[in-house]
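Lab notes, practical 5.
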Amino acid sequence: MDMEKIIIELLGIQDVTIEDIKKFKKDLRLEIKIKQKKEECYCSHCGLQFKAVKDWSLKRLKAPPMGIYQRVELKF
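Output from the prediction step:
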């Protein structure tokens, strides 16, 4: 199985692809940059697809520890 699929499955996120993973062994920190598949995402308020969204702000989420990395952050 592909490591990207394992990480996505363990974190419980859907309809995303991993673009970049940065490991900081000194700080035991991990940054995972993901991209949502906008054609498969819908607005919770109006129900429309996110295909037409032109301005997407960078968001950060804390994720559970993964192995030796105690601080895991998702950027999308």
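Observations recorded by the TA: The first strand starts at residue 16 and ends at 24. The radius of gyration is 14 Å.
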